[in-house]
């Protein structure tokens, strides 16, 4: 199921093995999202408290935050 979720409700997965870097690739992703929007949804799971936990695509969430996007996929 795909739905829009407010970004502030999405918490990072605490055991995520990779660090989100603010590098040239992030700048390319930001430019792409600014121009085309989010084309591939992030993957989350809902928690008991109503928040969501990020499973995959942490860089996309960070790029959306940097762009000031309030809702993500």
Overview of this protein structure:
The protein is an alpha+beta fold. It has a single domain (about 5-70), classed as Conserved hypothetical protein from pyrococcus furiosus pfu- 392566-001, ParB domain (Alpha-Beta Complex). The chain is about 30% helix and about 20% strand. The chain contains two helices and five strands. The protein has helices spanning about 25-35, 60-65; strands at about 5, 10, 45, 50-55, 70. It has a three-stranded mixed beta sheet with strand order 2-4-3, with no helix packed on it. It has a two-stranded antiparallel ribbon with strand order 1-5. One of its GO terms (cellular component) is chromosome. One of its GO terms (biological process) is chromosome segregation. InterPro entries: Chromosome_partition/occlusion, ParB/Sulfiredoxin_sf, ParB_N. This is ParB N-terminal domain-containing protein.
Task: Give the tally of β-strands.
Answer: 5
User: Which fold name fills CATH's third level, the topology?
Assistant: Conserved hypothetical protein from pyrococcus furiosus pfu- 392566-001, ParB domain
How many H/I helical runs? 2
Strand order of the largest sheet: 2-4-3
The domain count comes to 1
Describe the biggest sheet?
3 strands, mixed
């Amino acid at each position: 199921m795909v739905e829009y979720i407010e970004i502030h409700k999405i918490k990072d997965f605490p055991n995520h093995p990779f660090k989100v870097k603010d590098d040239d690739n992030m700048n390319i992703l930001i430019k792409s999202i600014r121009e085309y929007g989010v084309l591939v949804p992030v993957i989350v799971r809902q928690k008991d408290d109503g928040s969501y936990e990020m499973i995959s695509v942490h860089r996309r969430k960070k790029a959306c935050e940097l762009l000031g996007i309030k809702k993500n996929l």
